[in-house]
Design a protein that fits this description.
The protein is an all-alpha fold. Helix content is 69%, strand content 3%.
Length: 823
């Protein structure tokens, strides 16, 4: 009955058994736990009192009594019981313990700060060995791992427990928690199975409510909380989440009321404010979240979950000294805490970073990378600040921190607290941006300049709204602004997106944040970004940029997004209908004469595809496969026919299977350089990360002496991968050919930091250009570096003479007096 959520019936049966003289301790435990679950705290206290008359020193009862006292407003007495339990344990050490009592002992030692790893090894592992067919030993170890954010280890133990107890809702719920960060689909399946067995499983219902809260499905959140409170009208975590809902609705009185109800029975329960703060942080309300965690720590200064969350909140607010200090404190108190351990390791790595400061920006990055492209980072940030702050009418008064990580794992730990986060290129918390550097992205890095512009746009919109905006709007504006800055940035329509728009994958504007929470695939997540950007484009096109600014202003005042849109654009149903037509028209305008159906496509062989296309001449996937098959067989001239047909259908498509890319490849093979150049230029305008295209363009333009075009493509290469020598070699050569000192210096100065093949030559050429632009102090440094590499370098020696003669005092000029010199 307890396992299936029939708590009231469980109490009745247990009471009957106890009244009948069956005083087996489990009857009292079951009855007490059921009464606590239903919020019958006074009844639970009486049950414990009755049980202690029979077994006054039973450790399981003492451990349970602690919770009973807490929920009856007796926190001081609860602490005394903990001391009593410790004393009893000391007096009876060495006595054989049953398995359940041994688990309680482990929980006690965890509570008083013992090493969690030793508890796992010395207490829980022996329990598992003594009773391999019972689940509780595995559950205890798994819940310990889960409390330390060791999700993989928790999943292992829960899965063993599931093998010996397949219908245990506690195990299924634990598996849902364990897989939640890494596999949302599997987590959902386990959670639903748990709730199927026990529809009144309060932690499971709260987990569902929290997922609705994250997806901004606030009505569904409230329904789940209502169901929980029907089971236990006093459930503190349900009231805590209601307080979060009230906060998000800017209802201060309701928020205060809900928090007071959460603390009505256990008045100094630190979990209440910890939970409130955790969910506010997920909504990017980091200042309010930090305040909640500080309140939790006032109730219990040793409550490590709150201290860990506060550390993360402070780091995300840019208050690094305080944040790192708290992380160290947590790690010292609990070196099994995975997040604290990760942050401690990360801090050691970041201590080696170099800091660049300019115009209110503080950039921290790997020292070598800072020397290579740190100046470009600052240059782009200054441009973004000038453009976007003016456009959105916002002044940034606090420093903006940007942290760029050469290791993806370090980025993930700084951003999420745990390794993972594959697919994230950058994250903005408000005044703090974290980013992966190109070094962390393997052989095919993304355009880091586009990522930086995107994330800084978040800084602008989050500051304007005081972090009170839905994710879809924040992401939508950032992608929209990417595209305005450079049409090759952002996203564009594709056959896959066209199908999603015209199919069942379009999300209503009012529910767009949910599209980011648990997308079925990475393509669905990217489509959520694309759709959100089109919503912003639609709002600006239909109602003007002033309307968008006004919506952001209203969000900052606490108005909900749907109300803000209705007030400054149109009623939401009108917006939904208008946007649906807008995006539908966009989809239909993409290759309107093409047939995108992939049904009945034959095998990708030339003869079969050729015959099939006679009856399906406008088949987009058919033409793509036919052209690719011909290229594989090196039938380049023949391949041009289906490619030109594809270009007729979709002239600006540059995504997967792009006819432009195929045509450029063929023209190169055929030696048609001028035609190839035209196609490559079109591709370069459409693709933000097509480094091979930029490299080929630079090569062709250099051969033809078009050095201005070489500069353009060198900078395109740098925007994708600034860590290779190629773009700087191109800039140096182009600058020298154009007699453009700044461009040559731009290339040569970076090359000097990249371990060039001939460092003496690079330093000399740089010194020469610096001298020509009247930067003689810098020129002297580099000519000396050239001579350090090659002491007999005659041209460098001559330049050194020139520079030193210029520095020497004139012969007829008297030397300064001694006093003048000293002054």
């Amino acid at each position: 009955m307890f396992r299936t959520g029939e708590y009231a019936k469980c109490i009745e049966v247990a009471a009957t058994e106890i009244a009948g003289g069956r005083t087996f301790i489990d009857w009292y435990v079951l009855k007490t736990e059921s009464e606590l679950t239903l919020g019958r705290y006074a009844d639970a206290a009486k049950t414990i009192d009755d049980a202690k008359k029979i077994a006054p020193t039973n450790l399981r009862l003492l451990w349970l009594e602690r919770d009973v006292l807490r929920f009856n407003g007796q926190s001081k007495e609860a602490k005394e019981v903990l001391a009593q339990l410790g004393g009893q344990l000391e007096r009876t050490s060495g006595i054989y313990r049953d398995l359940e009592t041994s688990i309680v002992i482990g929980k006690f030692f965890l509570e008083i700060g013992a090493d969690p790893k030793r508890i796992r090894i010395d207490l829980y592992k022996p329990i598992q060995q003594r009773a391999p067919g019972l689940p509780n030993g595995y559950i205890a170890a798994a819940e310990l791992a889960l409390s330390k954010n060791d999700y993989a280890l928790a999943a292992e133990d829960f899965q063993v427990a599931l093998k010996v107890d397949e219908t245990n809702p506690r195990v299924l719920y634990g598996l849902a928690r364990s897989f939640e960060p890494s596999d949302s689909e599997k987590a959902e399946a386990y959670l639903q199975e748990a709730l199927k067995i026990n529809p009144n499983l309060i932690p499971g219902l709260l987990m569902v409510a929290e997922s609705h809260l994250s997806a901004e499905r606030y009505d569904e959140t409230e329904k789940l909380l209502g169901k929980v409170l029907e089971i236990n009208p006093h459930e503190p975590n349900a009231w805590a989440i209601r307080a979060v809902l009230a906060h998000l609705a800017s209802d201060n009185d309701r928020e205060k009321e809900c928090r007071e109800k959460a603390l009505a029975h256990w008045k100094d329960n630190p979990e209440v404010d910890y939970l409130i703060g955790k969910h506010l942080a997920r909504k990017y309300r980091f200042a309010e979240a930090a305040a909640a965690q500080r309140q939790a720590l006032q109730f219990d200064s040793d409550y490590l979950p709150a201290k860990m969350e506060l550390s993360n909140d402070l780091l995300r607010l840019g208050k690094e000294e305080q944040g790192w200090k708290l992380a160290e404190e947590v790690f010292e108190a609990d070196n099994y805490n995975v997040v604290a351990h990760n942050l401690s390791t990360l801090q050691e790595h970041m201590a080696k970073f170099r800091t660049l400061e300019s115009d209110g920006f503080i950039v921290r990055m790997d020292a070598q990378e800072a020397a290579i492209y740190g100046d470009r980072v600052l240059e782009l940030l200054r441009e973004a600040k000038n453009v976007l702050c003016e456009k959105y009418d916002i002044e940034l008064n606090e420093p903006i921190a940007i942290e760029i990580f050469p290791k993806q794992q370090d980025f993930a730990i700084r951003t999420f607290g745990l390794p993972g986060g594959a697919g994230f290129l950058g994250v903005c918390f408000g005044n703090v941006i974290t980013m992966n550097s190109p070094a962390s992205q393997g052989e095919n890095p993304s355009n880091w300049e586009a990522v930086l512009w995107h994330e800084f746009c978040h800084v602008v919109t989050l500051n304007k709204t005081h972090n009170k905006m839905p994710r879809w709007l924040s992401e939508g504006i950032s992608v929209y602004e990417e595209t305005l800055r450079d049409p090759s940035w952002g996203q564009s329509i594709s056959p896959a997106y066209r199908e999603m728009i015209l199919g069942d994958d379009l999300t209503p504007v009012s529910k767009l944040s949910g599209a980011f929470l648990s997308p079925p695939s990475s393509q669905h997540l990217m489509f959520a970004y694309y759709e959100s950007a089109l919503v912003v484009e639609f709002l600006v096109d239909q109602f003007g940029i002033e309307a968008l600014r006004s919506i952001l202003d209203e969000l900052g005042k606490g108005l909900q997004i749907n109300d803000a849109i209705a007030r400054h654009a149109a009623p939401l149903d009108v917006v939904d209908a208008g946007f649906q037509k807008f995006i539908h028209d966009r989809a239909m305008a993409f290759a309107p004469d093409a047939d995108f159906s992939s049904e009945d496509l034959p095998a990708p062989r030339v003869d079969e595809l050729q015959a099939w296309l006679e009856d399906h001449p406008n088949s987009f996937p058919g033409l793509q496969q036919y052209a690719a098959a011909l290229i594989r067989e090196k039938k380049y001239t023949e391949a041009l026919k289906p490619i030109d047909k594809l270009l007729e259908l979709a002239p600006d498509y540059a995504g997967d299977g792009s006819p432009l890319a195929m045509k450029a490849q063929i023209l190169k093979e055929l030696g048609e350089t001028q035609q190839e150049l035209a196609v490559l230029e079109q591709l370069a305008e459409l693709r933000a990360d097509a480094i091979e295209v930029y490299q080929r363009l630079a090569e062709v333009h250099a051969d033809a002496g078009r050095w201005d075009a070489v500069v353009v493509n060198a900078r395109r290469i740098r925007a994708v991968n600034p860590l290779i020598q190629e773009p700087y070699l191109l800039l140096a050569k182009a600058g020298e050919q154009l007699d453009d000192g700044p461009v040559a210096i731009e290339g040569l100065s970076t090359l000097s930091s990249l371990d060039p093949y001939d460092p003496a030559d690079i330093h000399f050429r740089l010194a020469l250009r610096l001298h020509e632009t009247e930067q003689d102090e810098k020129a002297l440094r580099h000519v000396l570096l050239a001579l350090e590499e090659a002491p007999r370098y005659r041209d460098a020696l001559q330049l050194l003479l020139t520079l030193t003669e210029k520095r020497a005092p004139e012969p007829d000029q008297p030397s300064p007096a001694k006093d003048d010199t000293e002054r």
